[in-house]
């Protein structure tokens, strides 16, 4: 197992370098880099996010008739343009900038934001609690419901209960979380019907003035609609995974043997089947958590105005705040690779019969 872990750790190096290199290359051709944004602000062309990113390419340096390096820079002092390029680090060749970025990232030095005048690491620490709250409660909520429901569906496979719940689950899985979130806002957050839940923030403005027993109520009051929106896909996936895993185990010979020995269905289900059937569900927990933590929170945090990592990443992409964009990409990719390794190790911990070192490659 030690050799397998070492191989996986070594493979993370080219993987993370490849992810960052591809993203860095794509960014070079993205329109409206930070230099163009400052130029647009200086020339009065930046009234909105869409206008700020409508200029020329980031480093394409599309020369116009006046000889300016950036579109929209006509009439500006070339020395000012040079200072802007040096300020954002664009006075160096792309390869040099990429190698310097990767060297800093290896030491977890992510630099400072272009437009927020603070370090990227401090920004991530500041926004992390919101995204962690969403991720943890989504997993608790979805697993607490989907596992018992999946077991019940496996026992009642083919029954009316199974058919109706499968239909509801498929519909819930097909509806995008952000669309369901908008529907909840319309219905329950001051839209066209009721105004039962707040529309923005993780806590109320007077949170510090609330009594100790009111604070958790206020916290969950704000989390209700975002959690319901995000739990749909996780709930459906885990339920069907649990059901299929239990059905597969129920059909095996050891279950028939246990029944022949006189054990009742409850003893067979929870004494023998449960441990084996839950293997794949438990092992998939780290990946499911990372998925709910990072991918699902992007749109939901923006819809409900939750100041977390998803919203931070979105605003950074819109504003072309590249240090934040690349730092979050690096951290998320690194976490994803470690979580993938952790999932494999959990398989071997739960079921010692699994040995990745002996499998044929």
Features:
MetI-like; globular; cell membrane; Microcin C transport system permease protein; 0% strand; membrane; mainly alpha; MetI-like_sf; MetI-like fold
Describe the SSE topology.
Blueprint: H1 2-28, H2 34-42, H3 49-52, H4 78-87, H5 94-106, H6 120-155, H7 160-174, H8 177-188, H9 214-250, H10 253-260, H11 265-283, H12 285-295, H13 297-303, H14 309-318, H15 322-350
Subcellular location: Cell membrane
Domain ABC transmembrane type-1: 128-343
Protein name: Microcin C transport system permease protein
Can you tell me about this structure?
Helix 10 (253-260) runs antiparallel to helix 11 (265-283). The protein has 2 domains: 31-106, no CATH class; 128-350, MetI-like (MetI-like fold, Orthogonal Bundle). With 361 residues, it is mostly helical. 68% of the residues lie in helices and 0% in strands. It is built from 15 helices and no strands. This is Microcin C transport system permease protein. Residues 128-343 form the ABC transmembrane type-1 domain. The chain crosses the membrane at residues 9-30, 130-151, 163-189, 219-242, 277-304, 324-350.
The whole-number mean of residue pLDDT values reads: 79
Radius of gyration: 26 Å
The helix/strand order is HHHHHHHHHHHHHHH
Strand content: under 5%
Task: Give a count of the beta strands, DSSP E runs of length 2 or more.
Answer: 0
Tally of domains:
2
Distance between the termini: 15 Å
Number of alpha- plus pi-helical segments: 15
Summing up helix and strand content along with how strands pair, one would put the structural category as: mainly alpha
CATH architecture identity of the largest domain: Orthogonal Bundle
Low-confidence stretches: 47-68
- Quaternary organization: single chain
Q: What is the global morphology?
A: globular
Superfamily at the CATH H level of the largest domain?
A: MetI-like
- So what's the CATH class of the largest domain? Mainly Alpha
- Note the main sheet: none
């Amino acid at each position: 197992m030690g050799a397998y872990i070492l191989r996986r750790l070594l493979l993370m190096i080219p993987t993370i370098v490849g992810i960052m290199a591809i993203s860095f290359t794509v960014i070079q051709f993205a329109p409206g880099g930070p230099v163009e944004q400052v130029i647009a602000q200086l020339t009065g062309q930046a009234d909105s996010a869409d206008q700020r990113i409508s200029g020329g390419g980031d480093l394409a340096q599309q020369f116009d008739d006046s000889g300016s390096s950036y579109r929209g820079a006509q009439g500006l002092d070339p020395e000012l343009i040079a200072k802007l390029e040096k300020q954002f680090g664009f006075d160096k060749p792309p390869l040099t900038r990429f190698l310097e970025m990767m060297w800093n990232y290896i030491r977890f030095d992510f630099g400072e934001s272009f437009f927020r005048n603070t370090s990227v690491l401090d920004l991530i620490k500041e926004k992390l609690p919101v995204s962690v709250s969403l991720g943890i409660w989504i997993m608790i909520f979805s697993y607490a419901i989907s596992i018992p429901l999946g077991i019940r569906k496996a026992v009642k496979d083919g029954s009316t209960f199974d058919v109706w719940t499968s239909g509801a689950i498929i519909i819930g899985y097909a509806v995008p979380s952000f669309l369901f979130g908008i529907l909840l806002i319309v219905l329950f957050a001051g839209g066209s019907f009721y105004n039962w839940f707040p529309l923005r923030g993780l806590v109320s403005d007077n949170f510090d003035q609330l009594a100790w027993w009111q604070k958790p109520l206020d916290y969950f009051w704000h989390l209700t609609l975002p959690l319901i929106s995000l739990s749909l896909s996780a709930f459906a996936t885990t339920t069907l995974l649990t059901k299929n895993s239990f059905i597969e185990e129920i059909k095996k010979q050891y279950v028939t043997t246990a029944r022949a020995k006189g054990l009742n269905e409850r003893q067979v289900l929870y004494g023998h089947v449960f441990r084996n059937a839950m293997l794949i569900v438990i092992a998939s927990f780290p990946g499911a958590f990372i998925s709910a933590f990072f991918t699902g929170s992007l749109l939901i945090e923006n819809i409900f105005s939750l100041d977390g990592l998803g919203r931070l990443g979105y605003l950074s992409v819109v504003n072309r705040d590249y240090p934040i964009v690349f730092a979050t990409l690096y951290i998320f990719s690194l976490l994803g690779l470690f979580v993938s390794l952790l999932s494999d190790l959990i398989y071997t911990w739960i079921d010692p019969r699994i040995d990745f070192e002996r499998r044929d490659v």
